[in-house]
Design brief:
Strand content of chain A: 25-35%
Number of helices of chain A: 11
Helix content of chain B: over 70%
Shape of chain A: globular
CATH topology of the largest domain in chain A: Rossmann fold
Oligomer: heterodimer
Structural class of chain A: alpha/beta
Number of strands of chain B: 0
Low-confidence stretches of chain A: none
């Protein structure tokens, strides 16, 4: 096990971790050090390389080059030892549909070598925790999407892993179910090392101790949510609500201010120096009906746009 | 015995799919009665005797088992459950065993159903019934192991297509209702190279009084295929575990 300069133990370290699929470089030489007990988020759009990175760390995919250690065990040299101490809740709701919730948990505990008594005790606790205790004996194919996700997370916890990988745990869920799952994840903070991949900014912002913004297989930025926001604190963000905003006008505005994001009912413009009059004088003669303008604090979305030139979309 | 937990789940999964279970038992039972009735209407000269039909139809039933076992594995792969299971510290051999073992009771049940119905229809057993059972059991396991290979290579839709081709091949080249030796040529060569006709022929021979020495080559032929399919399935699982 390696230690950081401040004495923190690293649960996960990657060393130029890379994965190619033919000519496509999905993960491109990632170097990361994730501290023990940390909730670390890999944030990026679909296809950024988050799931590929997780699959390599879970020993489901061999790196094309580079390697990683999980609690000091090398993923290339000793995958079985890595598998002993991890668990994962995959992006897809990977559950046995014809089994009930109880049996799904028993299955996961059993294949990870837990004694029957221990599985029973842990399952009872987890079903209570994710609010499925009353429906534990129902076949899970009758569950809603949110219930399946909650069960999927509980299945990843039954073996009490030292390192937990949560791959897009709230993908496709309604906001209420999403917040419910956030509460469960927040309850695990500090108890175990968690690697959370997401393309929901609010999710990473609300849950993560540190975030790595990943784009085209590379780490574009790394830090706490606040550090990342502070990194563009010298930027101004103007929110313009307007009607009749054709794409060619937005493209023209990008020649003056390169970071223009389209939002519902308007645009957001980011720059170190913004001129209100310049923007209004550009938009009005082009037939744009401005309804309101305001300034706002930079968000992680702004950080992502600033770093990658792309928007994170749901 | 971590794989036993997964085997238990797969057994439950199999039992909780009543349509597949019904087909696995109903198809051989139905075909046996239909062909027996056909044989009766053809008269005394008919080759569709119970001794001919029972082992053949049992193997025909295994071919369906092959398809259903492949489908279960393919479904788990497509639904990402297998990916999740692969993050557990199980070896490829454990996975193959846990997906194969639940089908062995079904193999036994199919044999019992075929011979039970056969007995009702006047089947005569002159040889060692235990040896007949052993030959057919190995053949059934062989089919399940081939199912594992299909389940690892193809998706659910492809499995049903490839499975149908294999069922047809078993029916045509296994010598279930036609004597492939009498057909001769390339059909005989292919049928003789595959394990199905060996298992059916060996079971029929024992049923009319032959001993193990007479069918040893056929038995080892089937056993060889079973071991090769098991090894190939294990190899494919290892490949799937990291890709």
């Amino acid at each position: 096990m390696s230690y950081g300069t401040n004495g923190n133990r690293f649960a996960i370290q990657t060393f130029s971790l890379s994965r190619k699929f033919g000519d496509l470089v999905a993960v491109d030489g990632i170097d990361l050090s994730i501290k023990e007990g940390e909730l670390f988020s890999l944030l990026g759009p679909n296809g950024a390389g988050k799931t590929t990175a997780i699959k390599m760390l879970c020993c489901l995919l061999r790196p094309s080059s580079g390697t990683a250690t999980v609690m000091g065990r090398d993923i290339n040299e000793d995958p079985m030892a890595v598998k002993q101490i991890i668990d994962v809740s995959p992006q897809e709701t990977a559950i046995a549909e014809h089994l009930n919730a109880w049996e799904n948990l028993s299955l996961m505990g059993g294949i990870r070598g837990l004694a029957t008594k221990e599985v029973k005790k842990r399952s009872e606790e987890l079903l209570e925790m994710v609010g499925l205790a009353k429906r534990a004996k129902e076949q899970v194919r009758k569950f809603s999407g949110g219930m399946k996700r909650r069960l999927s997370i509980a299945m990843a916890l039954v073996s009490d892993p030292q390192v937990l990988f949560l791959d897009e745990p709230t993908l496709g869920l309604d906001p209420q179910s999403r917040r419910g799952i956030w509460e469960h994840i927040a309850g695990l903070k500090g108890k175990k090392t968690i690697v959370l991949t997401t393309h929901y900014l609010e999710e990473a912002d609300a849950l993560a101790d540190r975030i790595a913004i990943i784009d085209e297989g590379k780490i574009a930025a790394l830090g706490t949510p606040q550090e990342l926001k502070d990194s563009i604190s010298d930027m101004q963000v103007m929110v313009v609500k307007a009607k009749n905003l054709p794409p060619d006008v937005i493209e023209g505005l990008k020649e003056i201010y390169p970071e223009v994001k389209t939002t519902e009912g308007g645009i957001e413009i980011r720059a170190k120096e913004l001129s209100f009059y310049e923007i209004v004088d550009y938009l009005r003669p082009r037939g744009v009906a401005i309804q309101s303008t305001s300034l706002k604090q930079p968000t992680l979305d702004d950080v992502f746009l600033h770093l990658t030139g792309k928007e994170l979309r749901e | 015995m971590r794989f036993a937990e997964l085997a238990k789940r797969n057994f439950k999964e199999m039992l909780r799919d009543p349509i597949s279970t019904g087909l696995e038992l109903g198809i051989p039972a139905g075909f046996l009665v239909i062909f027996w009735a056909l044989g009766r209407s053809m008269g005394d000269e008919s080759f569709l005797t119970t001794t001919m039909l029972v082992p053949g139809i049992a193997v025909f039933g295994f071919a369906f088992l092959l398809m259903f076992s492949a489908m279960m594995l393919a479904r788990d792969r497509e639904g990402a459950l297998l990916s999740r299971l692969l993050t557990a510290p199980l070896k490829p051999r454990d996975f193959i065993l846990s997906y194969s073992l639940p089908y062995i009771p079904m193999v036994i049940l199919q044999i019992v159903v075929c011979f039970g119905i056969g007995a009702l229809l006047g089947l005569e057993m002159l040889g060692n019934a235990g040896l007949v059972f052993l030959v057919l059991l190995v053949m059934g396991i062989c089919c399940v192991e081939l199912g594992m290979i299909l389940g690892l290579l193809f998706n659910v839709n492809q499995v049903s297509g490839v499975g149908s081709v294999i069922i047809t091949l078993v029916a045509l080249l296994g010598g279930i209702w036609i004597d492939i030796e009498a057909i001769g040529g390339v059909f005989y060569s292919i049928g003789n190279a595959l394990p199905f006709a060996h298992a059916i022929g060996a079971a029929r021979d024992v049923m009319i009084g032959a001993g193990f020495s007479s069918i040893a080559t056929d038995f080892y032929w089937v056993l060889g295929y079973t071991l090769v399919f098991f090894a190939l399935g294990t190899f494919l699982f290892r490949w799937r575990m990291v890709e």
